[in-house]
């Protein structure tokens, strides 16, 4: 199992920036793709960005050019730099990590979520 601890959420004005961090821990063989998802009130959870262990990234169209995902494999930590924030970015942001256990089975874990609120 992998435990994920997120930090960095908060309240910011439109046009501002925030940086989210998510640290993974657990006795597994490897941590594979990591990513960020978000869920706004009354809406389904949606993908924001993902990054593979080798650095390949994928972004939702709504955040391309404004958000940057990165990771530090040595620290098992993934980051989300969010610039030019808009009120519609307001949501609870969740970290996700896929992993391979020592027995070879695969799974994924979710963080507890961190609130991002963008005021207009």
How would you sum up this structure, described in words?
The protein is an all-beta fold and 120 residues long. It contains no helices and 11 strands. Strands 2, 4, 5, 6, 9, 10 and 11 form a 7-stranded mixed β-sheet that branches. A hairpin with a 5-residue loop joins strand 9 and strand 10. It is elongated, with a radius of gyration of 14 Å. The chain starts with a strand and ends with a strand. The relative contact order is 0.33.
In short:
The chain is mainly beta. The protein is built from no helices and eleven strands.
What key attributes describe this structure?
120 residues; mainly beta; 7-stranded mixed β-sheet; 4-stranded antiparallel β-sheet; elongated
């Amino acid at each position: 199992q992998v435990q994920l601890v997120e930090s960095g959420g908060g309240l910011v004005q439109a046009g501002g920036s925030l940086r989210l961090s998510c640290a993974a821990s657990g006795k597994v063989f490897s941590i594979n793709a990591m990513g960020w998802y978000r869920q706004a009130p009354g809406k389904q959870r949606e993908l924001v960005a993902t990054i593979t262990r080798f650095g390949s990234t994928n972004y939702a169209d709504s955040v391309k050019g404004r958000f940057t995902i990165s990771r530090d494999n040595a620290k098992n930590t993934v980051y989300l730099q969010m610039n030019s924030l808009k009120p519609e970015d307001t949501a609870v942001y969740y970290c996700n990590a896929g992993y391979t256990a020592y027995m070879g089975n695969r799974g994924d874990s979710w963080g507890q979520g961190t609130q991002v609120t963008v005021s207009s």
